């Protein structure tokens, strides 16, 4: 079998110094999860009958983590697999699960399946206000007629560009690393399928990114889209289209100018074509307008002038401080996602639904342990009910006029929805560089106008917070910690995380 052949190549990876992986010689039920949060939930329900490991290590970003060969080994040995999904995890993490689990092993997407247990999901509405258009890439539609599933890839390739300078599309990750999607400075190579100028997305997802132009003028960029249903299938052509950009110059007459809000260059899996989906309000749901490429021009105005940031990761654009025109990424970190917010666990009631689904999945795989799983789940559900009340009580102790959350990461919509706190904004609209003076002024005015007592940073992102700390100092706001996606040595369980966050919010905002 496919998985058995992998064992020969991977068994040497069980070397010294690594956490204990899953094993075929362990009598316990072997369980793999995508994140440390899910690992903790399974441990609470499974107790001594299960051995659990997570693919994404403690402290790592699940949006950006790339699985290793050791992770493949753990998947191969797993008797049960749990992911959050709703596109929370990096796509390669999901593909590693789906490609390497043995036949018949339960593979549970908790965020989606927990809806049957009364979990509540909310739309992911992105209300970032920028002075320029927020432009991303999108795969729209399910592609069901092609047989797509959550492991399928949509490939969006830049194949040609014209203009007075070079064009770059890139993403800045949570920890400051860059991923270049396309780069016109070295040409476009059809011989390798435009491999170096291609962005890969799951079906029905979109990604944020920054767009850079090195000189003012009119540019065109041609994109081609294809669908790869699985690793062995031939790609299905979804079409191509050429988009026009007016960079620091007046847009040509006769076309609709996209100059504000949120737009995505989009591969339509169901209609087989490339188009622009546009939301002038910037919410990101794209229910308003569909434009063909030849109907629009994308404006990159003079106020988009920026400089190449310092740091080797930005050298592909030129020397530091070289002038460029940039449509910024808008939201910190690597976010490839759909229209539903995947961070369900920020509402404790949703984790109660996760717990019931985990209990029933473990019983289905290990009926002899049913009594243990039910007893552990009942005890954990009682603690979660208390936790929910404690979080609610802590946030209600904050004066209503102070219940504003400014963070680095759009991961707290469920917390806001469930416990009555408003997400007021993010640290900076452009994580690729330090904020401009205008950005600083807007952030300062937001904190002052709303009289926000504190802003919140995830510990893993503290090193990228110098501007926020300076603005907080100018306004008298405190800088306080908060956790979103992952556990670490200081906050080792889900209960610890939620109590830590509730206490941090109460202390810093009240």
From TrEMBL:
GO terms for molecular function: metal ion binding. It is found in: Cell envelope. It comes from the Bacteria. GO terms for biological process: cell adhesion; metal ion transport. Its main location: other. PROSITE patterns: PROKAR_LIPOPROTEIN (PS51257). Keywords: Metal-binding, Signal, Transport. One of its GO terms (cellular component) is cell envelope. Pfam families: ZnuA (PF01297). Belongs to the bacterial solute-binding protein 9 family. This is Anchored repeat ABC transporter, substrate-binding protein.
